[in-house]
Amino acid sequence: MSELKFIFTGPPGVGKSTAIAAVSEFAPVVTDVLATDELSDIKAQTTAALDFGEITLDDGEKVRLYGTPGQRRFSFMWEILIEGGLGLVILVDNSRPDPLADLDIYLENFSGFIRDTGAVIGVTRMESHPQPDLDDFAAHLERHGLALPVLEVDIRRREDVVQLLDVLMMTCEPA
Amino acid sequence: MSKRIKLTEEGARILENMLGHFVAETTGVYAALVSSSDGHALAQWSQSELHGSKLSAMSSSLLALGESLSRESGQQACQYVIVETLDGFLVDLRVGERMVLTVLARKDGSLGLLLSACHQLAEELSSRIRKE
Q: Which whole number is the average pLDDT over B93-99?
């Protein structure tokens, strides 16, 4: 039986832990530590190693969900966490100064994994920050030679996160 | 409310001196680093070349995992994360709430004495940082 494992990544503070907590059937494993840099102006804690949660599909299959730390200094954890993964959810916060540049960091660092599996982009806080819009994201991805689904999401809402996972599962080729 | 850690040059020098003294006085220890809880390098003293920023980020992750594992296992607070290799030990522990101490040692002395020395240094660093 194939192992269903998906990875959530994106910039610090975008809501990776929140997304996993919104859908996991148990209280997720978290590795929060106190933030001591500019992030601490907006958020007391940050993920230092991983988040882990689990959901069960209608057919009874378990899906394991891992969240990465957002900061590039923790990129060694990115390498560890994608092992055996079947797809990537990239969350982008539209209220940050340059969401497309944020996206590029993860497209670049996970390029091999995205090529081998698949990815979906979830854009948060679009209600208050409508630009760039979904067309801008699609055009940006096209300039990278990528055609990935881009969805507006509120990652606090379980149905939005489930939708991201549904789209990802439709996109990904099983390993 | 922001909880940034900003070490002055003087503060960093004091930490490095404390780490240097610890490395010189503790059997088998050849390097010691202080990092922020979220993996930024703050101060280090080493007898050999080390990539301090990488070790700081990894120590932050490892200690966070150790603490998470302790919680999930229903045990009490994690005191140390210890990695034993063929030729040495790596020890990670908290300094107060916002910092991590990483100590690298050869297997010249006993692990018990090493942990005791690490614990004492963490207390001294914590107390010194509170005064600064």
A: 95
Task: Determine, yes or no, domain membership for B2.
Answer: no
Contacts of B60 in chain A (CB under 8 A): 33, 48, 74
B70 touches A at CB < 8 Å? no
Is residue B110 a contact partner of residue B28, using CB atoms and an 8 Å limit?
A: no
* Closest residue, chain B, to A32 (C-alpha): B64
Nearby residues of B20 by Cβ (< 8 Å), 6 or more positions away:
B45
What is d(CA B37, CA B57) in angstroms, rounded to the nearest whole number?
Answer: 9
Domain CATH code at residue B68: 3.30.450.30
Q: Kindly give the parts of chain A with pLDDT less than 50.
A: 1, 175
Q: Which domain holds residue A145?
A: 4-171
For residue B55, which phi and psi values (nearest 5 degrees)?
-65, -35
At B1 the pLDDT is 47
| pLDDT, tens digit, 9 for 90 and up, residues B100-110 | 999 999 998 89
Q: Is residue B50 part of a domain?
A: yes
List alpha helices for B1-132, DSSP H: 9-25, 52-72, 111-131
Contact across the interface for B61 and A74, Cβ inside 8 Å: yes
